[in-house]
Amino acid sequence: MLLSIMYGVVGCLVATCLTLMVLSAGDIVYHVQYVDATVSQTNNSSIISEMIQNGNALFNTSEYDKAMTTFDQVLKLDSRSVDALNGKGLVFNNLGKYQEAISLFDMALKIDPNFVDALYNKADALGELGSYEEAFIWTEKALAIDTANQNTSMSTSALLPNEIN
Predict the structure, then answer these.
(1) Are 122 and 112 contacting, i.e. CB atoms less than 8 angstroms apart?
(2) pTM as predicted
(3) What is residue 38's predicted lDDT score, i.e. its pLDDT?
(4) Superfamily of domain 16-159
(5) Which of 63, 94, 108, 128 has its CA 20 to 30 A from that of 72?
(6) In the Cβ-directed half-sphere of 30, how many Cα atoms lie within 13 Å?
């Protein structure tokens, strides 16, 4: 009888150990997947950042087609990249496609209403279209956030034509 009780206790211990091992293996798989996802996300962020820098460099050298392609590739990886949306908007703005530029700046601002670059760039595109009052409003919004430029040459008087000042 004592032997049967011992076998029963040992059986329970073995079953408990096996259950703990299965749970531990499941937890390990979960944690490995979590670490993989975190590393992957970090790598993606790093790749996206490099691509945006490359797109900006291409833009700055007037290689607009290549810059546009680069920003489009970023948006395939991260459709909510305000930097890529802004970059595409800048390309359109420099090509004289102001409405398309404004649409992209608006998309960036929908994601991040305080994205100062898009606020300034939208104001610039509106000014190019002759919508000076609206450009003034968007410049004021940017300056309200970007306090570093409130007392510099980026003031609204420098951004608008003489008729409006």
Answers:
(1) no
(2) 0.67
(3) 46
(4) Tetratricopeptide repeat domain (1.25.40.10)
(5) 128
(6) 6
